[in-house]
Amino acid sequence: MKLKKLCEKIDYTCLQGSVETEITDVIYDSRKIEKGTVFVCMIGAKTDGHNYIPDAIAKEAGAIVIEKEIDLSEIPDNITVISVKSARKALAYMSAAYFDYPAKELVTIGLTGTKGKTTTTYMIKNVLEQAGKKVGLIGTIGSLAGDKKLPSKNTTPESYELHRLFREMIKEGCSHVVMEVSSQGLKLDRTAGIEFDYGVFTNLSPDHIGPAEHASFEEYMECKSLLFRQCKCGIVNADDEHVEGILKGHTCEVKTFSCAKVADLTAGDIGFIKENGKLGMHFHTKGCMDCEAKVHIPGRFSVYNALVTMLVCHLAGVSDDAILAALEKVQVKGRVEMLPVSDKFTLIIDYAHNEVSTRSVLTTLLEYHPKRLICVYGGGGNRSKLRRYDMGEVTGQLADLCVLTCDNPRDEEISDINNDIKVGLAKSNGKYIEIDDRKEAIKYCIEHAKEGDMIVLLGKGHENYQEIKGVKYHFDEREAVAEIMEELKK
Predict the structure, then answer these.
(1) CA atoms of 79 and 94, how far apart (whole Å)
(2) Which among 138, 141, 146 is positioned nearest to 174, based on CA atoms?
(3) Mind listing the pLDDT tens digit for each residue in 62-91?
(4) Fold of the 3-98 domain
């Protein structure tokens, strides 16, 4: 592909060479430069791509994209050099061109917000799939084209990876993609140039504020708001106090959802479902859908996630009957995920591994008035001791029994990690026992469960391994529970 074609959507100045140069690939990692590639010199938090121009010369790159002034005399005449205002933005537009604008061939749904993105993206994906669509997904847990796993790193991957994933999804037959759009992804122009068909705002609270992320809450909100200047239809939570800030400067059509106000889709008559070991929510909606809805994911926040899913899928042309039928079947791996093992007690897997997420999960479950709330968890090794103290304190306050066990101890001893958790438990007088083997800890809880109990396995969620002394051992809690149930039958 000619460099001129790659640069068709960006403002640039050609400082030397020719934009008719043939380019074999777009590269932003100097280790991957090969002969004939274009190297984009991005400035990151730790490294500056301009420092790797000698590598690009040595590896015979076909072109170099810069955003700083450099000494051109050191660059051979046969290497084209173009200057841009923002190399990050240039990478986004060049990557889109390189993969022939795949986002335009997909119905694109982007979600931003502090909480609920992962769960809601999976809910939307599941409902669209139940309606016969093949759907790609990009987010915290990874990237999928239908059921096929695709390699990716960040919640919102770098722009080149993003367009590569889009193109891969199209090859796999996907018609839709639903993705988490992080504030960092928006700030760093990873989604620059994409016009989303639907942009979604879930909620906003202080998070990701610090030297390496956002300087202030105001900047965090400003970055989130960028999504609504690059989507056709914005779907926003009318109940969130920051919704006006999120919509500041928006250029999209706006649709709203609410549990308290008149909106395009409003939920009322909200109630809890607790039947045969299953938990969930039921509610009535008014607005663009007038119906009774159920979702078998516990907690009031599930109603908001369901409203987003209903509104997106309704606007995307899915019938109301198909949406409601699919919503009842939705489960999200590792996010308040119920395993149907008994009609007498409830068993739940959740990824919560810090104080905030643990408190949220446990307070949600307590609204269902369990006979006993039992937590099985450990702590990550080579991580902050404060997190362990906090986990111990909150579980001690809210749970009837804590079973301390193994999580990902990494290079630490399980006993040392659990001793730190016990510091927090002592503050709240929490009852606990210790069983180092996680499968045995789960088995103990199942064997001793009483009618009406809730057992929640915290910390592993979607993970299928335990990291011990530098080795990742396969461990999937769903498989462990299935094996335990078989053992108990025998």
Answers:
(1) 18
(2) 146
(3) 999 999 999 999 999 999 999 999 999 999
(4) 3.40.1390
CATH 3.40.50.1370 given to domain 337-489: no
> Is the confidence at residue 119, as pLDDT, over 80?
yes
CB 178 within 8 A of CB 137: yes
CA dist 73 to 81, 83, 262, Å? 11, 15, 65
Strands across the sheet containing 432-434: 337-339, 346-350, 454-458, 373-377, 401-404, 432-434
- What SS3 state is found at 35? coil
CATH architecture of 102-329: 3-Layer(aba) Sandwich (3.40)
Residue 154 confidence (pLDDT): 78
Nearest to 229 by CA among 210, 201, 249, 204: 249
Q: Which residues contact 137 (CB under 8 A, 6 or more apart)?
A: 121, 122, 125, 143, 144, 177, 178, 179
Whether the Cβ atoms of residue 445 and residue 458 lie closer than 8 Å to each other:
no
Cα separation, 246 vs 186, in Å, equals 13
Of the candidates 417, 425, 423, 364, the residue with the CA atom closest to the CA atom of residue 394: 425
Q: Which two tokens stand for residue 385?
A: 């001791």
Q: What is the mean pLDDT of the chain?
A: 95
Tell me which residue of 296, 243, 245, 303 sits closest to 274, measured CA to CA. 296
Question: Where in the chain are the domains?
Answer: 3-98, 102-329, 337-489
> Alpha helices, DSSP H only, in 399-489?
414-427, 438-447, 477-489
